[in-house]
Protein 1
Amino acid sequence: MIQNMTEAALAARENAYAPYSGFFVGAALRGESGRIYTGCNVENASYSMGICAERSAVFQALASGEKRFRTLAVSGGRTNEDAKLIPCVPCGACLQVLSEFCSPDFPILLADGVHKLSDFLPVQFNLSSLSQFGCHRDER
Ligand code: THU
């Protein structure tokens, strides 16, 4: 299972579009249905318009109607060899997006093994943070 997920992330990494950083990332997100959604980083000449592999996978899953997830695998690096050996920790923005849909113990598979979301993001701004301020949420 872990191997399948990592292989899916490495395969998605092959599609990364990263001519500016030269850093290629792939992500594989397993939904509660068992289906795997993949994403890769896509950069842009207008630098800030780029998107990370992890958010790309989350949005792909959401657009397919899945919003509960079992696990995420991430593989990143300049070379395929690096991506297999060196852990690529999701950036803060991606961790925040993941925290919208995943619990703190959500497993994240990196090159050095299994971590959990709360290892990287111990606290998050979420729906309960908003309710503390009396803000209401759309139940969709
Ligand atoms: N990147 C990801 O896709 N995921 C990460 O976890 C870290 C960074 C991308 C963003 C950018 O295209 C490139 O890697 C260098 O930061």
Note: The chain has a mean pLDDT of 95.
Protein 2
Amino acid sequence: MASFAPSPADVADIGVTGMAVMGSNLARNFARNGFKVALHNRSVGKTEKVMDDHSADGEFYPSESMSDFVASLQKPRVAIIMVKAGKPTDAVIDELASLMEEGDIIVDAGNALFGDTRRREADLREKGLHFVGSGVSGGEEGALNGPSIMPGGTKQSYERLGPMLEKISAHVDGEPCCTHVGADGAGHFVKMVHNGIEYADMQVISEAYDLMSKALGKNAGEIGDVFAEWNKGDLESFLIEITAEVLHHTDVTSGKPFVDVILDRAAQKGTGAWTVQTALDLGVPVTGIAEATFARSVSGSTPQREAGLKVLPAEAQTLEIADEAQFIDDLQKALYAAKLVSYSQGFDEIAAGAEEFGWDIDLGAMARIWRGGCIIRARFLNRITEAYERDAKLPLLLSDEYFTTEIAKCIPAWRRVVAFAAASGYPVPVFASTLSYYDAVRSERLPAALVQAQRDYFGAHTYQRVDAEGTFHVEWSEDRRETKQD
Ligand code: NAP
């Protein structure tokens, strides 16, 4: 028997089912913003706990059963699901859908793969229900105090849902960090790429830390000071800020710098891999995100690392760093340039997804709603919005005049950092892969010509010529004459 009275019918503005950390914080955020919030959880204990600990946050209407929860919602009903992603989400959707009526809205605010969201949206559309897959970024802190919210679904559902989501989202310069992203799975797609960019950002920051630690011999606190300084400039961002804080933290057990007692195996929950897998399907080179995701895999490849550590020679030159301040300045510039490339690649993926799935996504607005609440919030996101305001169809974010100017200031430093790391034997997968990508997209001619020739040789895959229209093939095993294909 629940320790709360049954809630009245048709009373709540919005409901949240799933009272673990994310769902309860989101519900409290709605309540603190003046909304009447229906609460539900599979096991009633979590709902009771929210009522016991947080009822002062606002008007809550808890229910023990899903049917009472649905009955407590004002029509058209809006129910947000915040449960474990995957099968549990499907189970809750089925239960909710069986209780809801035409025009009602089911929102999945968990981390779903956008393909699942597209499937669920199509299923529920047939039943006359709106299904909104919504990205929510900012972790538990953001859910409570203002996340960045990326809802997909129909425009019609956004008219009912949007004002509430905008109110509880983070705000920057008076603007909400929430907007309608696009139809069906667009919101979860954008959230996925957001997480991929987060992977690249975190990895390249860690590479800068690694070089300061190994090449300059600085301790964690000293490196924390550098990041704190960088946070006052173009690199100002949540991730740089928390990096400084983490590096300044001392482990309570050992008294050592906290970072030094953490096992160097980076875990992942899968959104980085989704971003890369989707990019491969779409043919979009997101090299920074991919290398960042693989860097976590390398870190966790214990048998390979143990074998490599024992026998692989370094054959590295120990390069002298004559000017420490110059080296740190180089790292700062390389970090900024690598970060710009990672974001540019991420925006390419969003543009390609929009094209493939027929979403009308305003790329500038995506950068705008990432300015607050989310993990990749950063000063320079305004610059991305401005670039897409100048040209909404910009084929390459880096080609905007602001970014070409900024990157030009960083290139010599970026090359010095990558060259130094390669010669000295330090792994810098994101610094290096983003530079290679940069050099590839600005190259007049790529060695892809030779790849095409090889493909034609062993597989008759054909090629095109620089000096004639059409598709060609060489009869390699015969007289090597060239034939034109239809
Ligand atoms: P979680 O640990 O992922 O899931 C626990 C919740 O799911 C509990 O309420 C649990 O109910 C419920 N649940 C599990 N299986 C169920 C089933 N078969 N039927 C009904 N309910 C079921 O919770 P969380 O950490 O708060 O995360 C919720 C969602 O947000 C997830 O999709 C997660 O990926 C996402 N998330 C997002 C962020 C972010 O920054 N945006 C951060 C963390 C998580 P019981 O109490 O009855 O077991």
Note: The pocket of NAP is lined by residues 18-23, 41-43, 46, 82-85, 88, 91-92, 110-111, 136-139 (CB under 6 Å).
